[in-house]
Write a structure and sequence with these properties.
It holds the Pfam family IQ. Keywords: Actin-binding, ATP-binding, Motor protein, Myosin, Nucleotide-binding. GO terms for molecular function: actin filament binding; ATP binding; microfilament motor activity. Belongs to the TRAFAC class myosin-kinesin ATPase superfamily. Myosin family. The protein has 34 helices and 22 strands. The strands form 7 sheets. Strands 2-3-17-4-13-7-8 form a 7-stranded mixed β-sheet, with helices on both faces. The protein has a 4-stranded mixed β-sheet with strand order 18-1-20-19. It is α+β, with helices and mostly antiparallel strands. The longest helix has about 100 residues, at about 715-810. Helix 15 (about 415-445) crosses helix 16. The structure holds adenosine-5'-triphosphate. The site of adenosine-5'-triphosphate has 22 residues, from helix 6 and strand 6. Adenosine-5'-triphosphate (ATP) binds near residues 86, 90, 147, 149 and 150.
């Protein structure tokens, strides 16, 4: 179920009036309403949206716009479109950074004063806001001088500010920020593609579609530019009081040359140069470009005079001798002049040289100038694209800004105007198809009682221009593809014959000049046929292409080589003409527009003289009518296909939120029989209406209509629903925030508990490991100690049994045996021995019979004594002092004859129960305590 906005009653009435102006009584009442509306003049400027004007007529709309213009308000909504009036003077703070931020940060920018930034922001949010992001297009239209280029620049500035990506800034010195580079493409393209015309001092002589590429975070990461049909004829010839492309004047002003060039009659050269530097066009390339431009200017001064001998080429005009064009273009002067004056005809494998007439020479010269300039322009566009275009993998969406030349109608119009007006027809058709027709057809198919608003459908005009099989373009192309000299009269006859049945084309029977008049949506334009076919062929003499492929100017060499590669010489029906190329490029543009969500801005030129703050009603009304603003307002074309249930179903679901108003829950209101989907929708709509208790039943009916599958709402109803929806959404947001905070709190708590648990587990594991290690170590120590003690015991026993015998018979043998087994090293007086951990008694016993000296020292000695006495090692409780021990031992059981002093610091009685060893005579320390002397 979809939602559409319904035009208010008065607007519908207005539409009926426009459609039935013949009805006198209706007309009278409408006039009355118009008068009533206009009497309140002070209020007219307050209408921010022209859909609120009542009644909607060209007069009321015009008056409102005029009132707003007089109080310096230049933007006004007109349903889905934005009307932008050109102030023709800078307005302070209208486009400042603060204003941009204000619109960008506003929760509802639509509630702010109408501005081009609302359009920009809406498109920007649309990309973000969709479930499936949709590319956007901002179509800026209007006639020449209406402010399209200005508006496009504002849009680009806006995106370069709000979507600026600081991450792209890799190094400020080497890599210029992408936003800066995107903006710098403007001065270059304006210098090479804009010119001063009678209608606009800075008129774009080409169309452009700029694609601003956004990454996943909606940041500007690149851009690409597509250009359409540069008006290259301007290089060689400009209409009276108009100028050549700006760049020629910029270069001339800079070089301060006093030459007078025929092609041109002071400008921001520094800005262009800076932009070139920022985009990476180095000094060498710049020099090459400027030399070529100078070469084109000098080429324009080459003039020819007819030769007296027809078989000889034309002569050069006196003033043209010494012309520097060949030198500047880096080609041979002789060859250049030959190519300009002599045509090479191919007859099989033979080449025939044919001198050209004076007129043909001039055409060839102009043709060369045009082709060189057009190729330089194309090269620049490609260079800019290479410099600003992001890698395809880095961007996912784009916002396109379309700025095409406005509708043109001059005294003499030719192929350029035909193409430009054709492009405007195409854009108008896109608008008509997208809003005016689609919207109303939808109302009818939904079964609404809708009085169809008449709008100007330009399909028949487009059929005339581009239709198949017979149309202006098809006949023009046929004529251009025939291998014969073009004849304006022949083409005129063919057009008359083939298209006489079409109401959009006509001929002035009294005119002597071959022409045809087309009734465009914006007005009738008469086109001169003379020269049209030749322009459509756009021939470039192959001799000139070959010559410039040999140019020593590297840039010229490159662009002519590329041209050959792009344009293989196709003949006959396949031949590419200007019209066929333009038609193809427009078709691809239309495909892009159809695949994107469009946003229309209609620029209006308030006066033809570009005077500041001057509002000419006739001028404005023509433009309003031409672009169908009044019809757009009538249809109130803000038809946005959103799901009604999806958008407003939540109001019904969150009945509690509304229940506080004392209104019944929707569930109870829902009739039991509504099983059918459409019935259910119907009921739901009524429920929603009931929720707004302030509305009476009758009022519901006027505010809301239910179609077969769609709901149509008036603005008032929509506002109510939107308000309610906003309230509920903010309540939901609050609940979500609470839940989220609660969740965060719980998660933090759970994490802390888990961390404590893990810490405890790790600590206990570490302690267990440590204890196990200690246990193992204790076991090893115990085992070793036990083994050592047993060994000592067994040694002592063995020594006791054998000591006597050994002493008498083989003491030295025993001594060495003991030494071996017990690691005791004894020595005679002459050879002191060291005792390690050996019972002193045993040590003494194993000493030689003559005096023995224990030479163990310090700690070891003390330990030996303690071990032999079986004393426990208690630090600080006693001190063992072994002073001398020179005696003859008969047995270890014998009382030591030397002296062993134990100085107890605590009571020796503590150790009274201690036995120095088993089966020995020493019964306690008390005995040892007695200092014995020999
Ligand atoms: N919003 C604006 N504020 C101030 N001046 C403006 C504004 N819009 C346009 N202008 C002025 O109007 C002039 C013409 O505008 P602009 O060049 O944008 O017209 P255009 O529609 O692009 O014309 P063309 O189709 O010939 O290129 C600008 O040079 C500028 O001086």
């Amino acid at each position: 179920m979809f939602l559409c906005l319904l035009a208010s009653r008065s607007q519908m009435k207005g539409s009926i009036d426009t459609g039935c102006s013949a009805h006198p009584s209706l007309n009278d009442s409408l006039q009355g309403e118009i008068q009533a509306f206009l009497t309140d003049e002070d209020q007219l400027h307050t209408y921010d949206d022209l859909t609120k004007v009542n009644p909607v007529t060209p007069t009321t709309v015009l008056k409102c716009l005029q009132a707003r213009y007089s109080v310096k308000v230049f933007y006004t909504h007109a349903g889905c479109t934005l009307v932008a009036l050109n102030p023709f003077q800078p307005i302070p703070d209208l486009y400042s950074l603060d204003v941009m931020k204000e619109y960008h940060c506003a929760p509802q920018p639509q509630e702010f004063k109408p501005h081009i930034f609302i359009m920009a922001e809406e498109a920007y949010r649309n990309v973000r806001g969709q479930l499936e992001p949709v590319n956007q297009s901002l179509v800026v239209s209007g006639e020449s001088g209406a402010g399209k280029t200005w508006t496009s620049r504002c849009l680009m500035n806006y995106y370069a500010t709000v979507a600026a990506s600081s991450s792209v800034l890799k190094s400020q010195d080497t890599v210029e920020r992408i936003e800066r580079r995107v903006l710098d493409s403007n001065p270059i393209m304006e210098a090479f593609g804009n010119a001063c015309t009678l209608r606009n001092n800075n008129s774009s002589r080409f169309g452009k579609y700029i694609q601003l590429q956004l990454d996943r975070c909606q940041l500007l990461v690149g851009a690409s530019v597509q250009t359409y049909l540069l008006e290259k004829t301007r290089v060689a010839c400009q209409p009276a009081s108009e100028r050549n492309f700006h760049i020629f004047y910029q270069v001339l002003h800079q070089t301060q040359k006093s030459h007078v060039f025929r092609f041109v009659f002071k400008d921001s050269f520094v800005e262009t140069m800076d932009a070139m530097v920022h985009l990476g066009i180095d000094k060498e390339k710049q020099q090459q470009i400027f030399r070529i431009l100078a070469g084109i200017l000098h080429l324009g001064n080459v003039r020819f005079s007819p030769s007296t001998d027809e078989t000889q080429p034309c002569n050069l005009d006196e003033k043209s001798k010494g012309n520097r064009s060949a030198e500047l273009l880096h080609v041979s002067a002789e060859e250049l002049l030959t190519c300009l004056r002599v045509r090479t005809l191919k007859a099989g494998k033979q080449s025939v040289l044919k001198p050209c007439s004076q007129a043909e020479c001039s055409v060839r010269r102009d043709c060369l100038a045009k082709v060189i300039y057009a190729l330089i322009f194309d090269w620049l566009v490609t260079f800019i694209n290479n410099s600003i275009c992001a890698d395809r993998s880095t961007w996912c969406n784009f916002i396109g800004v379309l700025d095409v030349y406005g509708f043109e109608c001059f005294r003499i119009n030719n192929l350029e105007q035909l193409c430009i007006n054709y492009a405007n027809e195409k854009l108008q058709q896109h608008f008509v198809a997208h809003y005016l027709r689609a919207q109303q057809e939808e109302y009818v198919s939904e079964g609404l009682e809708w009085s169809f608003v008449k709008y100007q459908d330009n399909q028949s005009c487009l059929d005339l221009l581009e239709g198949s099989p017979i149309s202006v373009f098809s006949l023009l192309n046929e004529e251009s593809r025939l291998n014969r000299a073009s004849d304006a009269r022949t083409l005129k006859l063919r057009l008359e014959k083939e298209l006489c049945g079409n109401a959009n084309i006509s001929w002035d029977r009294f005119s002597t000049v071959p022409h045809f008049t087309v009734a465009h949506y914006a007005g009738r334009v008469s086109y001169q046929i003379e020269g049209m076919v030749e322009k459509n062929k756009d021939p470039v003499p192959p001799e000139l292409i070959s010559l410039f492929q040999e140019s020593e100017n590297l840039l010229l060499h490159q662009i002519f080589a590329d041209k050959e590669a792009q344009n293989p010489t196709t003949k006959g029906l396949g031949k590419v003409t200007v019209v066929s190329k333009f038609k193809n490029s427009l078709e691809s543009l239309m495909k892009i527009l159809h695949a994107t969500t469009p946003h229309y801005t209609r620029c209006i030129k308030p006066n033809p003289d570009c005077k500041p703050m001057t509002f000419k009603k006739e001028e404005v009304i023509m433009q309003l009518e031409a672009c169908g603003i009044v019809e757009t307002i009538h249809i109130s074309a803000a038809g946005f296909p959103i799901s009604f249930i999806q958008r407003y179903g939540l109001i019904a679901r969150h009945s509690n939120a509304v229940g506080s108003n004392g209104v019944l829950s929707p569930v109870t209101l829902l009739p039991p029989h509504c099983f059918c989907l459409s019935d259910m929708y119907h009921s739901l709509c009524l429920i929603l209406c009931h929720m707004f208790a302030c509305l009476s039943r009758e009022k519901h009916k006027s505010l809301l209509h239910c179609g077969k599958t769609k709901v149509f709402l008036t603005q008032a109803m929509l506002d109510l629903l939107e308000d309610q929806r906003k309230k509920i959404l903010s309540q939901c947001a609050f609940s979500i925030q609470c839940c989220w905070r609660r969740y965060l709190c719980r998660r933090r708590h759970a994490r802390r508990q888990s961390a404590t648990l893990i810490q405890a587990a790790v600590r206990s594991w570490l302690v267990r490991k440590q204890v196990q290690r200690w246990n193992r170590a204790a076991g090893v120590i115990q085992n070793t100690w036990r083994k050592w003690r047993d060994l000592m015991q067994s040694l002592a026993d063995a020594e006791l049994d054998d000591a006597e015998h050994l002493k008498e018979e083989d003491a030295p043998v025993m001594s060495s045996l003991v030494r071996e087994r017990g690691s005791v090293q004894l020595s005679t007086i002459q050879e002191p021995v060291t005792v390690r951990g050996w019972p002193m008694g045993l040590a003494l016993a194993s000493a030689p019979s003559i005096s023995v000296s224990l030479t163990a020292t310090g700690f070891q000695k003390m330990m030996s004594v303690m071990a032999s006495l079986n004393l426990p090692s208690r630090k600080g409780e006693y001190k063992v002092k072994t002073n001398q021990c020179t005696q003859e031992l008969a047995s270890i059981r014998a009382q030591p004859k030397g002296s062993v002093k134990l100085h107890y610091q605590r009571s020796p009685l503590l150790y009274a129960h201690r036995q120095p060893g088993l089966n020995n005579d020493v019964t306690g320390f008390n005995e040892i305590l007695l200092e014995k002397t020999l």
